[in-house]
Design goal:
Elements lengths: L4 E3 L5 E4 L9 H21 L4 E4 L5 H9 L5 E5 L3 H8 L6 E5 L12 E7 L8 H11 E10 L3 H8 L19 H8 L3 E7 L4 E8 L2
Parallel strand pairs: 3-4, 3-6, 4-5, 6-7
Antiparallel strand pairs: 1-2, 7-9, 8-9
Length: 210
């Protein structure tokens, strides 16, 4: 939703830095209300006791979830970005830990967390299947994920006059899924227990296969 793009020290695009959670734009706020309501319902449905948050960004959701885990462990991971490091310092909790790492070959044990999450992350990673496989390995029960819904996302960008030269593709988005294609991908890692499509996203709660 922004033209500001973050790049890590290895030249990997990590996404835009637009604060959609704190936006005062009325259109963005309306869209985010639907996004947050659906995501929260899936979060409650999972009832997770510990969380690995892949691509935690500034830690907005990670910090919020830490307060709701009743002391349960939550680890947020993301790329090495000084801006993110500063934001992490403002969002701390006794049960919350931030680590700098990529999502491939995660240094966690099998089933170490009750749930693994990736909120607006998988569209950025070079190999989404590899990232999901690692998340499923580390999660004992659940995967909770969300991505932009295509082609709706790009059509919406074009309609508002953004990213015309790239046909509406947000900088840093290297993967694109319709709701059906995303469900098919997720079914490789477990049962899609609940799939939601708040405009213009797709989000899902997946029960990890034993």
């Amino acid at each position: 939703m922004s033209t500001n793009v973050t790049v890590d020290r290895e030249g990997t695009v990590t996404g835009n830095t637009y604060d959609k959670y704190g936006s005062t734009n009325p259109v963005v706020r309306r869209l985010m209300a639907g996004f947050e309501r659906n995501l929260d319902e899936l979060f409650v449905k999972a009832g997770a006791t510990s969380i690995l948050d892949v691509g935690c960004g500034e830690g907005v959701l990670t910090h919020e979830w830490a307060a709701r885990l009743d002391g349960g462990r939550i680890v947020g991971i993301d790329l090495d970005d000084p801006h993110l490091h500063e934001e992490w310092k403002t969002r701390t909790a006794p049960n919350l830990e931030y680590r700098v790492m990529k999502a491939e070959n995660l240094p966690f044990a099998d089933d170490e967390f009750d749930m693994a999450t990736a909120i607006e992350v998988l569209e950025h990673v070079p190999d989404a299947a590899e990232t999901l496989a690692e998340m499923a390995r580390c999660a004992q029960r659940w995967i909770l994920v969300s991505v932009p819904r295509e082609p709706v996302w790009r059509v919406t960008n074009v309609a508002r006059g953004a990213y015309w030269k790239s046909l509406g593709n947000t900088p840093g988005h290297v993967n694109h899924w319709s709701a059906g294609a995303f469900r098919k991908l997720l079914s490789n890692y477990g049962e899609v227990a609940d799939l939601r499509t708040p405009f213009p996203w797709t989000m899902a709660l997946v029960r990890v296969r034993d």
